[in-house]
Amino acid sequence: MIACSWIQFMIHDWIDHMEDTQQVEIRAPDEVAEGCPLKSFKFYKNKKVHTGSAKPEIGFLNSRTPWWDGSVIYGNNNDGMIKVRTFKEGKLKISGDGLLEHDEKGIPISGDIRNCWAGFTLLQALFVKEHNIVCDMLKEHYPDFDDEKLYRHARLVTSAVIAKIHTIDWTVELLKTDTLLAGMRINWYGFFGKKIKDLIGHKFGPVCSGLVGLQRPRDHGILYSLTEEFVSVYRMHSLLPDKVILVDIRSTTSENKCPLLQEEVPMWEMIGKQGERRLAKIGMEQMLVSMGHQSCGAVTLWNYPSWMRNLVAHDVDGEDRPDLVDMAALELYRDRERNVARYNEFRRNLLMIPISTWEDLTDDVEVIEALREIYGDDVEELDLQVGLHAEKKIKGFAIGETAFFIFLLIASRRLEADRFFTTNFNSRTYTEKGLEWVNKTETLKDVIDRHFPEMTEKWMRCSSAFSVWSSDPTSRNYIPLYLRPASACYVLMSILACFFLIIFSKNFLV
Ligand code: HEM
């Protein structure tokens, strides 16, 4: 469940489509209305704007900053940023029990407060703690830094820690193969690896030394931005369970570090203000260990959380909306509203082979029957979300290959097109000690260990905090990562790319 909350934590750092004032209503057709929790529901359209260019002519506004800047804890604008700061020693507000503070209405005080639940605000609180401890470290080494300087540097460091964890820990857990592990580490450290980069710095271009630390951002001619396609493939609400399983952390540990079950709480009780009250009673440690021991849902058809089909969504101030929404229906509507291509066209746009029959998409006969009932034999009509959920998964991957293509493209872009991960990823901007902090932090487990020194020792058997904590640790592999068969192919391609780059740049420089 930590992996699932983490990705929501990231989404709330990057994107939230601004809404228009015009409300619309969706009505379930009579033939299916019986099976829908809501026969109709109202919601706001997205705010459309003219882009000023011919293609695409129309775009949609984002109310969050798309940069990897930790806005999920720091806020997206000046008012938001002021609200979360203590203005003492650079620190952010946090309550005595380690959880977020709340305003008089019971809404958490944090960078992002919309559609939150207990697992999400818990991660916000953990990274506020991380920010504050970075402030302590900076103050110790740079006693002349005032509140503003401490805040700004700690923000840079904490945001980079978040970006690094996402790149080399979370993504690797979601797409569990040696190829991905090699690819993501190359994105951060380059083919020569951490030890050499630590020793000599970023000397040999993106393939050998990684994207992080490049001399200049590379945006391939388009200013840093996230795409609508990216938003669509991250619509992974089926990762969310129907209930949260709380475990008893006062129990003695068993052989596989698995605590006893204490209580099952329906997911809808963990959302919004109600969820915050519940979390305050549960406490940070029990919630974190419980989430660690619960697996999340699979991104597959017929696994959409039923409680999301009559959901109380939040407005921009984090307050409950009066009209319930059916999120499953709304997600299809949003993709159509934003002109995101349907599944087959989406694949064509990515130069992937489109499907010709339902059998190309899945082997599941029950799924094929249902698709035929809805779309007939017209595979071009297949909605992107339905296709993404129905698609056969690559072995070891939690997602299908269509989403994976977008993941790969944007995972690199988020780093290489941002000056704080390229031109300014240096000790002048981050401070020497700040950069050292980013460099020594490799995983979410490192962060948890910092703030809860005994927790993972007692309750975590596996290697990554994003796995189910009672699962087996990754077995020791004495073959170096880049020589393993699955990653060797990736590495070989990287070396070839490097070789051609060198030749190309020589030709270019003379
Ligand atoms: C309790 C947990 C969650 C709740 C209550 C929730 C609720 C919502 C709501 C109400 C929307 C806006 C719908 C609209 O008007 O278009 C939304 C959008 C979205 N959610 Fe969630 N969500 C949750 C968790 C997650 C998770 C785990 C993910 C995983 C990736 C996720 C990904 C997204 C994405 C990509 C969007 C589209 C954002 C945009 O259109 O700008 N959400 N969610």
From TrEMBL:
Regions that span the bilayer: 481-504
Pfam family, one: An_peroxidase
Biological process, per Gene Ontology: fatty acid metabolic process
Keyword terms, alphabetized: Dioxygenase, Heme, Iron, Membrane, Metal-binding, Oxidoreductase, Transmembrane, Transmembrane helix
Superkingdom of origin organism: Eukaryota
PROSITE patterns: PEROXIDASE_3
Cleavable signal peptide: none
UniProt binding sites for heme b: H237
One GO MF term: metal ion binding
Protein's UniProt name: Alpha-dioxygenase 2
